[in-house]
Every structure is written in structure tokens, then in C-alpha cells.
């Protein structure tokens, strides 16, 4: 039995990541006995726009320094589009920068990101073609599609729900997702990204969505949880949490 402190860097308006990631890790805890506590630092962002996302990225170092004071064991930059909107491969530079920032203040821990975790998780599943659902406006969804394809994964289809208020994204009803996913073109797809956004609630919809599409399903939140656990060497398969948690 181990005790871990998990640090989350979240947008100031995020209301989902601090519920879905702890829930996945609670399920793991029930299997392994490991215990997890969660500690967040927030970066200002209310509207999902290019300007606010860039400003949030610039503020991330300050948030890392604050989390380092809590002596966490790992950190996750929990905003997928903030990184993907910066251009192909941006998660590598940002993770490296923030890891160095944490080490510079005496807390040498891994800093992972939701963007990097989604890419790594899709590669872990061997997915070469995916279909995705996002809450974003179409121009931001196009950036996410380009980013994923820049990592060697073709995007067969993408549905944009076109919500730019981040609080409103957090209020979207996850029970609608299985119905939305029916509209996706999944011909030839290897997996479905049910929520390419850490703020759009999706965890409880995964089993129903997998039944609809008959494909592996992953979300930004489950990918982030998987990456955090992998960094801690604390991964364990658990039910109803998507393809990355089937072992």
C-alpha cells in the first residue's frame, strides 16, 4: 500500500478534471489499496479562445511552483486544447519546460499533460485511425485534429459541439454522448475519443458509448489518469473506465 500526492494544473473555470481523475484513481485504489490525494493550482481561463489559452500557457510555470510547495509526486497539466492549440508537438516542449521549473524549485517530479497523455494512450492502443468528439468551436477542433494527425494518427471524423464558455462545457450532459457518438463516421476507425477535452464530462458515458460504437473508447480524462498512474508505477486495470484500463 502506497500513498501518493497528485498535482493538477487546471484552468480556473475547470469543474470536471477534479472529479473525473479522482474517480478513476478511486477505482484503482479499491483494487490495489494505494491511496491518492489531489492538490490543484489554477490558471485563469474562462473562454476557450486562442488568446486565453496562450495566456494560460504562459502562467503555467507559476502554477507549477505553487504545486511544488505541496511536495506532490507527479503533476498533470490538465488542459488538452491549451497545448494542442500551440502547434504540433507542443506537449513535448511544455512538459519539458514545466518539469524543469518544478526541479528548479526543489521538486524533481514528472510533469505530464492531457495532450501528451491522449497521444500516448492512443499509441498504446495501437490506434492508427480515430473519430473524436469535442466541445470546441470548429476552428479549435481543426487544430486538435491537425495535432493528432501530426502524431501519426488519422482522424476519420470529428464532431464539434461549439461551446466556447468553459463553465458551460462543464455543464454538458454526459448522458447525451452515446447519442452524439452515433453520428460519428467510425468506418475503419480503431478507437473513439469520446471527449477530446478534460472539461467535458464523459467518464460515466464510456460503457454506453463503447456499446454504441463497438470500439475502444478513450477520453482526455482517462488518458490523463492512465499517464499519471503509469508515471507513479501504480497502474491497475479497473472496470467501466475505458480501453486504457482494461489491462
Share in β-strands: 15-25%
Helix coverage percent:
40-55%
Instruction: Tell me what the CATH architecture of the largest domain is.
Output: 3-Layer(aba) Sandwich
How many angstroms does the end-to-end distance come to? 20 Å
SSE series: EHEHEHHEHEHEHHEHEH
Content-based structural category: alpha/beta
Can you tell me the residue ranges where pLDDT is under 50 for at least 5 consecutive residues?
none
The average pLDDT score comes to 95
Can you tell me the overall shape?
A: globular
Oligomer: single chain
CATH class of the largest domain: Alpha Beta
Taken together, the total number of domains comes to 2
Q: What is the radius of gyration computed over CA atoms, rounded to a whole number of angstroms?
A: 17 Å
- Strand tally is 8
Amino acid at each position: 500500500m502506497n500513498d501518493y500526492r497528485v498535482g493538477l494544473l487546471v484552468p480556473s473555470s475547470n469543474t470536471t478534471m477534479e472529479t473525473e481523475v479522482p474517480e478513476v484513481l478511486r477505482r484503482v485504489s479499491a483494487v490495489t489499496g494505494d491511496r491518492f490525494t489531489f492538490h490543484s493550482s489554477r490558471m485563469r481561463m474562462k473562454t476557450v479562445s486562442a488568446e486565453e489559452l496562450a495566456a494560460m500557457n504562459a502562467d503555467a510555470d507559476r502554477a507549477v511552483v505553487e504545486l511544488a510547495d505541496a511536495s506532490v509526486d507527479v503533476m498533470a497539466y490538465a488542459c488538452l486544447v491549451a497545448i494542442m492549440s500551440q502547434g504540433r508537438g507542443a506537449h513535448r516542449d511544455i512538459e519539458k519546460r514545466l518539469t524543469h521549473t518544478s526541479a528548479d524549485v526543489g521538486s524533481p517530479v514528472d510533469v505530464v499533460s492531457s495532450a501528451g497523455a491522449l497521444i500516448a494512450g492512443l499509441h498504446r492502443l495501437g490506434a492508427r485511425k480515430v473519430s473524436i468528439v469535442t466541445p470546441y468551436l470548429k476552428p479549435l477542433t481543426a487544430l486538435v485534429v491537425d495535432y493528432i494527425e501530426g502524431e501519426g494518427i488519422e482522424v476519420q471524423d470529428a464532431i464539434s459541439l461549439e461551446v466556447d464558455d468553459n463553465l458551460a462545457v462543464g455543464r454538458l450532459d454526459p448522458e447525451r454522448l452515446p447519442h452524439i457518438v452515433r453520428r460519428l463516421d467510425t468506418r475503419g476507425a480503431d478507437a473513439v475519443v469520446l471527449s477530446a477535452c478534460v472539461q467535458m464530462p464523459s467518464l460515466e458515458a464510456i460503457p454506453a458509448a463503447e456499446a454504441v460504437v463497438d470500439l475502444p473508447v478513450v477520453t482526455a480524462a482517462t488518458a490523463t489518469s492512465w499517464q499519471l498512474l503509469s508515471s507513479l508505477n501504480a497502474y491497475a486495470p479497473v472496470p467501466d473506465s475505458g480501453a486504457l484500463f482494461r489491462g
